[in-house]
Amino acid sequence: MGFFLETLFAGLMAGMLYSLVALGFVLIYKASGVFNFSQGAMVLFAALAMARFSEWIPLWTGVSNPIIANLAAFVLAGLVMFLVAWLIERLVLRHLVNQEGTTLLMATLGIGYFLDGIGQSIFGSDIYEIQIGMPKDPIFLLERLFPGGILVNKEDLYAALIAAVLVALLSVFFQKTITGRALRAVADDHQAAQSIGIPLNRIWFIVWCVAGIVALVAGMIWGSKLGVQFSLTTVALRALPVVILGGLTSVPGAIIGGLIIGMGEKLSEVFLGPYVGGGIEIWFAYVLALVFLLFRPQGLFGEKIIDRV
Fold first, then answer.
1. Which of the following CATH numbers is that of domain 2-295: 2.60.40, 1.10.3470, 3.40.1000, 1.10.1670?
2. How far out from the chain centre does Cα 88 lie?
């Protein structure tokens, strides 16, 4: 039982990290009705900015305290992501108002490739470290109930807590604020939202800023675990099944979908992998997503679309 719970907790922690990336997909889709294929590039770009600023700030200012340097690097990286959001709205989205969803989707593909290239041109293409102070040593829980306790990574625990707080804040933002309701209105119908005075360009700028901050947090955590490298863009591919499972329009769905995918991957790999030669963790999420696409394409918490003819 102890080993089962240990595997379960490891899956939950991994699922929370997937959810952080999936949140970026959900945010953009809720505001524009288009799937943002540049989310992985945004995570890499934000992580590169954070890693390089944390190196440069002590050289520029002489600050030796790593906490102050990391905080300043986070602020600067956040400002960079705001600048990226403003440029995307000003140079791309503003000229694509009321265009077909396919056009916007292709625009996000172009944005993704551009961010991949410009990010590595500005910040470099080596593998960089992000030291944000999260402890990496494991801890043992429930030692009184199970011999030896349950091994849990502290870094994963802190990352899960950060993700949970971020999801809670975003849920409140979308459900309780005027701007959040305007975002949902824009996603439903661009022209109708404009007709009642909702400024489409400002709304898109806000949501890309929020998605940029989410990408920055995700990039920090993934970069702390894996190092900041080009492979971070592939983390977005691991988040695609999460979005399909939870629903493209649901912020809580992103977190629930991430938890289900994370648990399913770990449990299937540990308990079923030995019987089929392993490798289940690689394809489990995509098979589950395919099943949902066949039987419940809107996901667990997505809005069911009904067309009247």
1. 1.10.3470
2. 19
Q: Residue with structure tokens 């894996």?
A: 226
Kindly list the domain boundaries of the chain, sorted by start residue: 2-295
Q: How far is CA 5 from the centre of its chain?
A: 26
Q: Are 266 and 278 in contact (CB under 8 A)?
A: no
Give burial (CB, 10 Å; 0-12/13-18/19+) of 56. middle
What is the C-alpha separation between 115 and 120, in angstroms, rounded? 8
Amino acid letter, residue 139: I
Residue 60 CB coordination number (10 Å): 11
Query: What is the Cα–Cα distance from 71 to 166, expressed in whole angstroms?
Result: 18
What pTM, to 2 d.p., does this model score? 0.84
What averages of pLDDT result for each successive group of 10 residues across the chain (309 residues)? 75 82 81 79 90 89 82 92 88 76 83 88 85 74 70 78 80 78 72 75 82 87 80 78 85 84 86 77 86 84 60
Residue 43: both structure tokens together: 């995570």
